[in-house]
Amino acid sequence: MNKLVEILTYEVEAAFEKAGYDKQYAKVTLSNRPDLCEYQCNGAMAAVKVYRKAPIMIANDVVVALEGSICIEKVEAVNPGFINITLDADFVASYLKKMNAEDKLGVGEPEHKKTIMVDYGGANVAKALHVGHLRPAIIGESVKRIGRYVGHEVIGDVHLGDWGSQMGLVMMELKRRQPELPYFDESFEGEYPTESPFTIEELGEIYPTASAYAKENEEFKEAALQATYQLQNGHRGYTALWKHIMAVSLPDLKENYSNLNVEFDLWKGEADAKPYIADMVEYLKKEGYAHEDQGALVVDVKEETDAKEIPPCMILKSDGAALYATTDLATLVEREQVYKPDQVVYVTDKRQEMHFEQVFRCAKKTGIVRPETELKHIGFGTMNGKDGKPFKTRDGGVMRLSELVGDINSKMYEKIVENHAIEETEAKETAKKVGLAALKYGDLSNQAAKDYVFDVDRFISFEGNTGPYILYTIVRIKSILNKYEETGKKVADCQIQKSESASEKALMLEVAKFNLVMENAYEELAPHKVCAYIYDLANAFNRFYHETKILSEENETKKAGFIALLAITKRVLEACIDVLGFEAPERM
Ligand code: ARG
Q1: Ligand 1: which residue has its CA nearest to atom 10?
Q2: Quick check: pTM over 0.70?
Q3: Can you give the three-state secondary structure of 12-29, one letter per residue?
Q4: Which residues contact 241 (CB under 8 A, 6 or more apart)?
């Protein structure tokens, strides 16, 4: 279904031509002066160069040519040459009716359906999930869902950090505690135990202890690095131990992500790149892309046009060990072979920007990916505490994710039972849903690249630009629709009517923007655009709601029109929160 701006652009194009001007100037956009008009065209100003006339004269000619358009109620030429458009209410109502008849509310299928891989989450196995893992999970999940909504094939991959130095640290700490285990016996040739030597709780404690110990003990640190290297090169005992670390960590990670409503299609990790590394290195050498530099193997990726220094991409360290770039490149080799993605999107902290710049350039230059494969990095900013410094627990530690989520849920629970009498299980369920919305919206409503202040008290408020406010609006609509059905009438039978008040029309115009917003959010990989939109939409609804007697309206047709408008507003809001990765309760 065409977007409103497209339909209007066609109308205005025809008018430009009718008035003797080129239609390339006829682009219509949303108004940036909503107090003056709903849509606008600024093309008369640009056309001046060609036609050597005052822009207002061109605008006036176009306005005359637009007379009789069924889309437009009022059109004006305004100095110096704006064309301001107010839409016809019947036209808007018919547009909403068409939207309502479609499953995806006017979002069409893409001309070319892409395969997109979203690489997000990226937890490092053996370390507890902490608040630092929130942003990649929340943003990535939303980007994935937006891509799916606009009709692409999107594959989410968690790309675990399961191959790095934390593995060596955990193993060497275990060796300190239980040196008798067969994994550390180089002469052991039997079958390793099937039972893990540690539980998830123990593992959660082993890593921080090891990491702290490595800071004070150089020898231990060396041993851990050595063990990591040996693991990466197929050491039998360490490989067996690694499998235990993975088997113990995965269920816990899955549960944590699932509590955030984050689901991955692929549970792959850096270790899965291993089978591709040797051949890739061989290829890079043979084709002359890689060369030695102080013992390390590197690929130059700087370009003449670079404004800043882009260091070479390091493929192997001087000791032959693989690095972060190595596994990322080898993962691209695998992705090209198995999934042939048109686009790969990575969601990480923006401090990894240089890493991805190097990896992307290297992958393109060496033909690891096809020239047309789009590689994108969404680099997000830091989550700060109210003091403006990176978010910490009260005692200065890094907060575990489960603790943070638990905190928000209990605060939410208190609010909900305070608000009204509600059964405990329902209150808990509701608190979980609203808490998640608070958390996710608090994050997603900011442009990803910006740092933001993690302010739980603000996020859980039912007022202002928050997740709970959006949910409250949806719940309010649900309640009105339920009451309408309780009178024996069906919401599904209600027909959208032409608006009669300003607040009703404003709400309809907001609803009508949905397809534009969704496609734009996809193109810019920008969930915050969806947030900004539903905030406007919720405000438009609440304004309408406060000014209008809905259920007590006596004219049945008019009342049914209101109900139909509420129903489509709810559908749009629900589609939006679904792509943001949360849902609304029945009551709150
Ligand atoms: N494990 C990495 C980290 O903690 C994130 C992984 C992101 N994905 C990637 N393909 N590099 O920073």
Answers
A1: 328
A2: yes
A3: HHHHHHHCCCCHHHCCEE
A4: 171, 174, 183, 192, 197
* CA dihedral for 467, 574, 524, 344, sign (positive or negative): positive
Helix (H, G, I), strand (E, B) or coil at 452: strand
pLDDT digits (tens, 9 = 90+) for 289-333: 999 999 999 999 999 999 999 999 999 998 888 899 999 999 999
The encoded tokens of residue 239 equal: 């490989």
Helix (H/G/I), strand (E/B), else coil: 583: coil
Q: Which amino acid is at 521?
A: A
Domains and CATH numbers, the chain: 4-87 (3.30.1360.70), 165-259 (no CATH), 401-580 (1.10.730.10)
Residues 366-395, mean pLDDT to the nearest whole number: 90
Alpha-helix runs per DSSP H in 197-262: 200-216, 218-232, 236-259
Q: In whole angstroms, give the CA distance from residue 111 to residue 108.
A: 9
Q: What is the best residue among 348, 375, 378 to mutate for testing ligand 1's pocket, by most ligand atoms within 8 Å of CB? A: 348
pLDDT digits (tens, 9 = 90+) for 421-468: 889 999 999 999 999 999 999 999 999 999 999 999 999 999 999 999
> Is 551:562 a contact under the CB 8 Å cutoff?
no
373 lines ligand 1 (CB under 6 A): no
Contacts with 264 (C-beta within 8 Å, 6 or more apart), sequence order: 121, 156, 157, 158, 257
Ligand 1 centre and the CA of 161: distance in Å?
A: 6
- C-alpha closest to that of 280 among 354, 341, 352, 336: 336
Helix (H) or strand (E) holding 331: helix 324-338
Closest CA to 162 of 220, 243, 233, 226: 243
Looking up tokens 């907060």 gives 399
**Distance between CA atoms of residues 53 and 44, nearest Å:** 10
Ligand 1: nearest atom to the Cα of 331: 10
Report the alpha-carbon distance of residue 543 to residue 363 in Å, rounded.
52
